[in-house]
Specification:
The protein is mainly alpha-helical. The protein has 2 domains: about 150 residues, UbiA prenyltransferase (Tetracycline Repressor, domain 2), CATH 1.10.357.140; about 130 residues, UbiA prenyltransferase (Four Helix Bundle (Hemerythrin (Met), subunit A)). It is about 80% helix and about 0% strand. It has 15 helices and no strands. α2 runs antiparallel to α3, α6 runs antiparallel to α7 and α9 packs antiparallel against α12. It is globular, with a radius of gyration of 19 Å. It starts with a helix and ends with a helix.
């Protein structure tokens, strides 16, 4: 069981749940009930690529994570060897690409592009974290579009809107993580936002990005971008819960509390639920 937990920690399998929901949202909005086989392989594509590239990330971050005393990382704890992490990437990433072939050609191109950029990020681009932050935010946004493309050639405008919200909140969260990892990043001379702006201004920037996502998130409720969300009380209720957690995380950022990173993740998951349920039911 210890080895299983270490593998799940290495590959961030828990993030796979968020990928599952984001892809389902894209598929449900674009094509109502999606074809089971297409959705299944679309999810496997995202899951395998996410697990493989996270393993590669920890392989290259090993020394930095030791400096930061990241005991949540199985390589630092000694539960998994760096060689095993590299092997995980070598096995799961090709499986992800193979799964995308089973969906359609567009999904294959998206998957291949993401794998190449993710690998470049893990190997080199993360040293330029200003770029890396927005790449990670992009990775949080693309599953909505990927899910839609898997089942339809036409992508509703609301999909791009949800992707934008994921991008903004994701970028804010990444900058928060940079502040937390600032000391360890000095080892590899990583150029992050705290390096250029300082910790205080970086926290302000992260808070502004998250707050922008919070403010914009109410647009589908007040404006008829998509009838499923327009004046939908269920959407408003779930969204309010998510945004309240985001605002609380901003409060923690101001206090340099490491809990901000955890609460932003919880808020993102709640936002996904807020996006998902109205796409399934038309409760008004």
């Amino acid at each position: 069981m210890k080895k299983v937990k270490a593998f799940l920690d290495l590959t961030r399998a828990g993030h796979g749940i968020m990928l599952y929901v984001a892809i389902l949202i894209g598929a449900m909005i674009a094509g109502s009930m999606p074809e089971v086989d297409k959705y299944f392989f679309a999810f496997l594509t995202a899951l395998f690529l996410e697990m493989g590239t996270f393993a590669l990330n920890d392989y290259f971050d090993y020394e930095v994570d030791k400096k930061n005393r990241r005991m949540d990382r199985p390589l630092v704890r000694g539960d998994i060897s760096p060689k095993a992490a590299l092997l995980t990437y070598a096995i799961l990433s090709p499986l992800g690409i193979l799964s995308s072939v089973m969906v359609n050609r567009t999904c294959f191109y998206i998957a291949l592009f993401n794998l190449v950029v993710a690998t470049l990020y893990d190997v080199k681009l993360k040293e330029i974290k200003v770029i890396g932050n927005f790449y990670i935010a992009f990775i949080m946004a693309i599953p909505f579009i990927f899910g839609a493309v898997a089942v339809s050639e036409n992508i509703p405008a609301i999909i791009y809107f949800f992707a934008l919200l994921a991008f903004l909140s994701g970028a804010g969260r990444e900058i928060i993580k940079d502040v937390m990892d600032f000391e360890g990043d000095k080892i590899r001379k990583t150029k992050s936002f705290p390096h250029y702006l300082g910790i205080k201004k970086s926290n302000v920037l992260a808070s502004l990005l998250i707050m922008a996502a919070v403010v914009l998130s109410f647009i589908p409720f007040f404006f008829n971008v998509d009838s499923r969300y327009y004046h939908n009380p269920l959407f408003l209720l779930l969204l309010a819960i998510s945004d309240a957690i985001f605002i609380y995380s901003i409060f923690l950022v101001a206090k340099n509390d490491e809990g901000a990173r955890k609460y932003t993740l919880i808020a993102m998951f709640m936002a996904l639920i807020a996006f998902l349920l109205p796409s399934i039911t038309f409760i008004k």
